[in-house]
Amino acid sequence: NEEIDSEAIFWTGILSVIRNDNTEKILDALGTPHSRRRLILQALTAMKTVPAAIIKIEESDATALYYLLHELFLETMLSLMAFSLDKRNARKILHFIMYLRGIKSEISGKDLIEAGIKPGPHMRHIFSHIIELKLKGSQFTREEELELAKQLYQNL
């Protein structure tokens, strides 16, 4: 039930065939709103990097697929599927959208701090570990995630 900016996908497709450095000038001339511009530019950048990376990933490698795609906007992934990938690799993105994209930690950095965990780069390791366990099929309640985070922090 997510809104999709189909115009961003449309302009990504058109701009993806223009091989020059005028993309931002074209977007300016079109009066493209900032939010749409951000979607288009991310998609155009991803079209240069994601295809080479996704080819190397097996669909069954949920962790690699997740870390490649989890920061991308939905419009970026749809643009990749429509304009940059063959069917096999487009299916990997579809698999990510359908099954992996919603995997998140139920706890936040604030929760960790309230539990006595000092802020720092180790928090990213804690969240990554929880996400990786979930990608492998583990399911946790919010309380179980917090206990796991405490255990991970103690073992650092």
Arithmetic mean pLDDT: 95
Low-confidence stretches: none
Order of helices and strands: HHHHHHHHH
Q: Beta-strand level of the residues, as a percent range?
A: under 5%
Number of DSSP helical runs: 9
Backbone shape: elongated
- Radius of gyration, whole Å: 19 Å
Helix content: 55-70%
Would you report the number of β strands? 0
Class of secondary structure makeup: mainly alpha
Rounded to the nearest angstrom, the distance between the terminal CA atoms is: 40 Å
Largest sheet: none
What do you see in this structure?
The longest helix is centred in the first third of the chain and has 21 residues, at 34-54. The chain has helices spanning 6-16, 23-29, 34-54, 62-69, 74-83, 87-100, 109-114, 122-135, 142-154. Helix content is 67%, strand content 0%. The model has no long low-confidence stretch (mean pLDDT 95). Helix 5 runs antiparallel to helix 6 (87-100). The chain has 156 residues and is mostly helical.
